[in-house]
Structure formats: structure tokens, C-alpha cells
Specification:
By secondary structure, this protein is an all-alpha fold. The chain has one domain (5-48): lambda repressor-like DNA-binding domains (434 Repressor (Amino-terminal Domain)). The protein is 58% helix and 0% strand.
């Protein structure tokens, strides 16, 4: 979607470091954050966290 980690973090109320940790499987987001991330990325929660 062309968002930086910092931009996505701001939209979801977390830091860039939190987004980075989620991307690198070092942090499991709260359910609320997972729904916010999915909304901002225009995905369903299960699509966002399905292993590749």
C-alpha cells in the first residue's frame, strides 16, 4: 500500500518499532491492534497473519 512502518504505526497508534517487530515475528499484537492493522491495510485479520 506504499505505507512506511512509521506511517502505519501512527495510523494504528503504535511505534515504527512495534510494526517492525510484528513483521519479524518478534511480537504478537493485541487483538485490537490486529484489527486496526487489517483495516489500514485493507485485509482481513486472517489474511494478515496467515503464514506464507
Amino acid at each position: 500500500m506504499g505505507l512506511s512502518q512509521e506511517e502505519l504505526g501512527k495510523k494504528c497508534g503504535v511505534t515504527r518499532q512495534t510494526i517492525n517487530a510484528i513483521e519479524n515475528n518478534k511480537y504478537d499484537p493485541t487483538l485490537s491492534l490486529a484489527f486496526n492493522l487489517a483495516k489500514e491495510l485493507e485485509l482481513k485479520v486472517d489474511e494478515l497473519f496467515t503464514p506464507e
